């Protein structure tokens, strides 16, 4: 990985601990994703994540099932997805008269993630699983994988199920055109309505490279017949900077520019800092999956989170 990307791994991460500014205390919007995934989104269809897990159970499950959560962070949301995935598998095995498998859970996030807090919460997690599923619930082993998910994470053909939520809109790095100053994003740190076409194209190209790499890496790590459910922010329209995306960021830009005018931030510092963040259009996602060719799309669901009521 390039030096710039390694630096990004060390800087772009969620804040650990349990203080007022920690991710654990400021991750309510992400938590809103889970009820939507595990309750019926419409009377005609089962939630995609639950259906994907049940589809996996229709195959011959091995004695050990490996689950990876990519971009797990720390705090109350960390075990939400994996606990539900394991519960669905356990209950389905009981219904089918199968012996429940041993679970291996790989929690992945950047090296700076507060994995100490994650592992301190393990006893409470195990107790919740026993209360929820009974004393017969099988063994569950948890391991941390501190690395970018744009790298290889586990040995080939290890995983039966991969889950990632609220993470893949984060890029591996700022587009190289910004790093080498071929183009600029003066006074802003995100894409905005005033962004130039070359800047927008650079971010789109970086997402394509990153998502394509992500898919190629996961193909090697997932067993044949395995499942993967990915949830991330995206655009509902082809417009690269729709109003719903740029309004709050323009307010942030105005606040930063005010700090520059007050002499609290150097103007060149603001002009050189950019966030490796891109919200793709739905067609961008489908195109990259079809181009890679190893994954089939079993379902694509659009979920609207009411941010104002969650914050």
TrEMBL record:
Give GO BP annotations, semicolon-separated.
Answer: methylation
Keywords, A to Z, come to: Magnesium, Metal-binding, Methyltransferase, Transferase
Keyword Transferase in record = yes
- Superkingdom of this entry's organism? Eukaryota
- Is Manganese one of the keywords? no
Which residue ranges does UniProt annotate as crossing the membrane?
none
Which Pfam families does this UniProt record tie to the protein?
Answer: Methyltransf_7
GO MF term set? metal ion binding; methyltransferase activity
Under the heading Gene3D superfamilies, the entry gives: Methyltransferase, alpha-helical capping domain, Vaccinia Virus protein VP39
Query: For this UniProt entry, which residues form the secretion signal?
Result: none
Q: What is the official name of this protein in its record? A: Salicylate carboxymethyltransferase
Species annotation: Vitis vinifera (Grape)
């Amino acid at each position: 990985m390039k030096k710039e990307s390694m630096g990004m791994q060390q800087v772009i991460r969620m804040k650990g601990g349990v203080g007022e500014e920690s991710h654990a205390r400021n991750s309510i919007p992400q938590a809103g994703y889970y009820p939507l995934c595990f309750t019926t989104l419409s009377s005609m269809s089962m939630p995609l994540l639950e259906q994907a897990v049940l589809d996996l159970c229709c195959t011959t499950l091995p004695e050990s099932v490996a689950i990876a959560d990519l971009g797990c962070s720390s705090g109350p949301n960390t075990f939400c997805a994996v606990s539900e995935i394991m519960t669905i598998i356990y209950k389905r095995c009981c219904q089918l008269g199968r012996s429940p498998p041993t679970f291996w859970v790989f929690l992945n996030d950047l090296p700076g993630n507060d994995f100490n807090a994650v592992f301190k919460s393990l006893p409470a997690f195990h107790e919740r699983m026993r209360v929820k599923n009974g004393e017969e619930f099988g063994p569950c082993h948890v391991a941390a994988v501190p690395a970018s998910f744009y790298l290889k994470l586990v040995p080939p053909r290890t995983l039966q199920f991969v889950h990632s939520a609220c993470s893949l809109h984060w890029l591996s790095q700022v587009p190289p055109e910004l790093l080498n100053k071929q183009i600029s994003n003066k006074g802003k740190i995100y894409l905005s309505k005033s962004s130039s076409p070359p800047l927008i194209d650079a971010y789109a190209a970086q997402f394509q490279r990153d998502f394509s790499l992500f898919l190629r890496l996961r193909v090697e790590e997932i067993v044949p017949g395995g499942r993967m459910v990915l949830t991330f922010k995206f655009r509902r329209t082809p417009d690269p900077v729709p109003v719903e995306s740029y309004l709050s960021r323009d307010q942030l830009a105005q606040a930063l520019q005010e700090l520059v005018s007050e002499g609290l931030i150097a103007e060149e510092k603001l002009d050189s800092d950019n966030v490796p963040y891109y919200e793709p259009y739905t067609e961008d996602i489908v195109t990259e999956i079809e181009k890679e060719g190893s994954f089939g799309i079993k379902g694509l669901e659009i979920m609207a989170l009411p941010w104002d009521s969650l914050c």
